[in-house]
Fold:
Amino acid sequence: MVRRADDSIGPLAVGVGLGVGPLAGVLAGTFGAGVLMAVLLANSGGAWDNAKKIVEDGQYGGKGSRAHEAAVTGDTVGDPFKDTAGPAINPLIKVMNLVSVLVAPAIVVLSVGSGANAGIRFGIALLALAIVVVAVVVSKRRDLAIAGDASPAAERVAS
Structure:
């Protein structure tokens, strides 16, 4: 699994930049939405897989029917849902919570104190935001490079 930078930098930026309360809100939202999304993806993927099996057993026209074509399309979408996307959300939640627990003492120390801590907090938050922006830009460039590399290869195979 490829880890993204905002899995661990996001909680750091929110905690240092905004404080402990907003960090708790981000974690609660991540946990709630992440668990619901993982359950949705796993269940819908399993449902599409089971629908294809039912059609292949002879119901709704069986193999070769339009229902079978639709079920195969649904299963093509459902397999990544139940096998990869749903289970991949669990490590994201764990990493965000772990990073938050590890940086919580530093956030509390920086939140309480002199005005000099405000400058440090602002600098750390800007650095974390810059890391996230750079990670997104690099990720998008890789996607474009991969898409650009695939086209000449496909043209060579076709000719």
The longest helix spans residues 66-111. Helices lie at 6-18, 20-56, 66-111, 116-158. The chain has four helices and no strands. The mean pLDDT is 79.
